[in-house]
Amino acid sequence: MRTPDDSPMLTDPTQRPNEPVTTGLNSGPGAGREALGGMDPRVAETQKMKKWLPILQPMINDPETPESVKLLFKYVQGS
User: Which pTM does this prediction carry?
Assistant: First the structure.
């Protein structure tokens, strides 16, 4: 079983000393988004979320639901 102590800490030495921390971003040193291999994990995750839309619909119609949740629902619905 994993515990939180198994996770690296921000103060730990890097496990990739020859790679800039900005690798994968479109700014800063290091390779840009092309370093990610063209795969955008958000697309797959959004598709997986679609199956939950019917269950979430009543919450979206509730006036107490935060606007941020409603926006996420609309985003997933439109993708």
Answer: 0.44
